[in-house]
User: Which sequence fits this backbone?
């Protein structure tokens, strides 16, 4: 991580692009390095937390099995029954809960909800909120109890 001052708007844009990239990775099965190159070339990254985008885009696929195991504990259906958008948001949020302790769990949940409102199916935000909240209770237990 760099020592740049955190810019929430840049991080939000990074998450939005990471969601789109992870969706492409999941649906088209395009290699991550190719998606990353395309996104960095085809998008104006001047107002995006590029480091965060790359961390999430590389981190989710590299830890897919671990992330999916966490998610499966709290869903009432198989991973294959989730929409690709829901799955991408949950994987991204779980990755952040596990790997990005610099980001408060409430921010991760809120960003997941907002992404699901923008890109997910009707009422997907409620599902995403519930799952990420349960994951936060498990993965950020000390932070949750401190609130």
Assistant:
């Amino acid at each position: 991580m760099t020592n740049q001052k955190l810019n929430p708007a840049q991080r939000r844009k990074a998450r939005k692009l990471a969601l789109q990239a992870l969706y492409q990775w999941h649906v088209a099965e395009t290699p991550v390095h190719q998606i990353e190159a395309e996104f960095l070339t085809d998008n104006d990254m001047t107002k995006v937390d590029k480091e965060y985008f790359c961390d999430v885009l590389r981190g989710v696929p590299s830890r897919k099995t671990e992330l999916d195991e966490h998610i499966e504990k709290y869903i009432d259906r198989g991973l294959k029954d989730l929409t690709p958008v829901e799955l991408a948001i949950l994987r991204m949020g779980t990755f952040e809960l596990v790997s990005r302790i610099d980001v408060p769990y409430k921010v991760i949940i809120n960003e997941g909800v907002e992404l699901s409102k923008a890109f997910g199916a009707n009422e997907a935000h409620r599902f995403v909120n519930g799952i990420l909240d349960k994951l936060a209770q498990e993965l950020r237990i000390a932070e949750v109890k401190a609130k």
Summary: The chain has eight helices and no strands.
